Amino acid sequence: MEEVKLHGFWASPFSHKVIWALKLKGVKYEYIEEDLSNKTQLLLQYNPIHKKIPVLVHGGKPIVESGVILEYIEETWPENPLLPEDAYERAMARFWIQFGEDRKALKFFTYGSGKKQEEAIKEALEVLKIMEEKGLGDNKFFGGGAIGLVDISFGWFAYGFECMEEVVGVKLLEPSTLPRLCAWVQNFKQVTVIKENLPNREKLLTHLKWFREKVLGIC
Ligand SMILES: N[C@@H](CCC(=O)N[C@@H](CS)C(=O)NCC(=O)O)C(=O)O
Predict the structure, then answer these.
(1) Domain span at residue 36?
(2) 88-111: average pLDDT
(3) Has residue 104 got a pLDDT over 90?
(4) Core-most of 63, 78, 85, 119, by most CB within 10 Å?
(5) Pocket lined around ligand 1, Cβ cut-off 6 Å
(6) Residue 49 and residue 68: Cα distance in Å, rounded?
(7) In the 8-state DSSP scheme, what is residue 158?
(8) Are 72 and 108 in contact (CB under 8 A)?
């Protein structure tokens, strides 16, 4: 088998999407942790346009953008499929993956207070409601009975969201208002591959606090 390498960053939800997909497929790979303030020459060479992680390198060839990487993984290692077999169902899965890509539910993290934040919280709640009612429905996973690419794409909810809520001091994912989505978070985190590959909560909280203060400039 050709060598597989992944350039990532421990706190990145994009890196985690790729890690979870590779592990669910049972693909062996070498992980290279990047210091995003001092990126390796290899990363800049592999992703000269965006200069971002994650980058998957398969047989020396780089693939960038987490969504593209997930599709590549699914096509290259078809065992343990993460997309439905039926073309229509596959199209629906891709719709939800795309729905999550604009990350509207996360905007509340990027505002300090005031009207903009109030609007971002309102929008996040609307997005979460749509995810629960129209995306998840009565299923255990977005993929139906088993974890799939939609679950992996929304996976940042399962760890990052709760920490973001804590840093900002708001609670949006409440069992009383979003019971099925909250149950999904628990189901997702109980999948062995996910459970074993989540970042440390305390470390992530510290990182998010630093990011909000120093990078976003919110005190
Ligand atoms: N759309 C990209 C986003 C990747 C991304 O934003 N990566 C961040 C880390 S979470 C990064 O590499 N940041 C470094 C930089 O912007 O210089 C994807 O889905 O892969």
Answers:
(1) 4-76
(2) 92
(3) no
(4) 63
(5) 9, 12, 14, 36, 51-54, 65-67
(6) 15
(7) I
(8) no
Q: 137 C-alpha to center of ligand 1: Å?
A: 31
Residue 67's CATH number: 3.40.30.10
Higher per-residue pLDDT: 219 or 71? 71
For residues 52-56, average pLDDT: 98
CB-based contact 8:53 (threshold 8 Å): yes
Q: What is residue 213's predicted lDDT score, i.e. its pLDDT?
A: 94
Distance 179 CA to ligand 1 centre (A): 31
- Cβ contact 6:19 at 8 Å: yes
CA–centroid distance for 65 within its chain: 12
pLDDT of res. 158: 85
What does the pLDDT look like over 132-156, one tens digit per residue? 999 999 999 998 999 999 999 999 8
Q: Is residue 194 exposed (0-12), middle (13-18) or buried (19+ Cβ within 10 Å)?
A: buried
Ligand 1: nearest atom to the Cα of 52: 12
pLDDT attached to residue 21: 98
Q: Between these two residues, 101 and 129, which has the higher pLDDT value?
A: 129
Domain co-membership, 102 together with 207? yes
The residue written with tokens 């909250």 in the block is 182
Question: How many CB atoms within 10 Å of residue 11?
Answer: 19
